[in-house]
Amino acid sequence: MTLPEYMAARQKDVDAALDRWVPAEAQNPASIHRAMRYSLFAGGKRIRPLLAIAAGEAISATPAGIENAACALELIHTYSLIHDDLPALDNDDLRRGRPTCHKVFGDAMAILAGDALLTLAFEVLAKLEHTSAERRVDLVRELACASGTVGGMIGGQVNDIQGEGRPPTAELLESIHRAKTGALLRSSVRFGAIYAGADAAQLTALTKFGEHVGLAFQIVDDVLDVEQSSEQLGKTAGKDAAQKKITFPAVYGIERSRAMAEEERMAAHSALHTFDGRADRLRQLADLVVRRSA
């Protein structure tokens, strides 16, 4: 199975699971469920669930029900995008090639849709059927820490907002992106490993892999914001520069940023040196992250 075929199959599994977990559009109160589904099924690549599933498969044969656990990652990711697009934050009108949630449903409903997706993520973890109560607790802890304020996604978003207009330094850049984007991507890999029962050595190796992939993802994202059009990206291009955000190109320039992404890709591969061919999908996903064009 080629990587595109693998991704399509796993994305289909995740989308089917998400469809089961998220209330139908007609279910009362219908307005919030329409808003949730509008953003959740807007055509995302499902990179975080894919990383989780591939990490689980690196530990054992496809663990039963892992697509349900992976749903929690996509729910958190989508909630963060809805809130990030709001006028009070990045104030963006376009996401995944169509109007953002607040442009369609209004600010209040977009805020509540994000809140609802965040809440549902932890309901999903609490109701997992194919794993022990102890492992469910580990997954809740993992996701909460990756999404929170101390080294997590929200902390990174705070640093990002407060860094606008400040002189771009390597230290501030790292404090933003290792948390804002990197924490949830690293956690995605750890998520699958924890679900599949990884031992301490395996979890350490996969954590290192996730850290390198997470940083590579953000570097490439920053570069694409400079080089690609809004049509190619599916979101408003050039926003980072317009808002004077601290990005990798702003600190290092385009060419050095691209070289750094390649260095992170190679480091991600190196982190998997103790794994056999079952980790090949992770290696391929690391390559995809760095070589993508949108």
| Secondary-structure arrangement, i.e. CATH architecture | Orthogonal Bundle
Number of helices: 16
Q: Which structural class do the helices and strands define?
A: mainly alpha
CATH topology type: Farnesyl Diphosphate Synthase
Could you describe the 3D structure shown?
This protein is mostly helical and 294 residues long. The protein has one domain (3-291): Farnesyl Diphosphate Synthase (Orthogonal Bundle), CATH 1.10.600. The chain contains 16 helices and two strands. A two-stranded antiparallel sheet has the order 1-2. Strand 1 (94-95) and strand 2 form a beta hairpin. It is globular, with a radius of gyration of 18 Å.
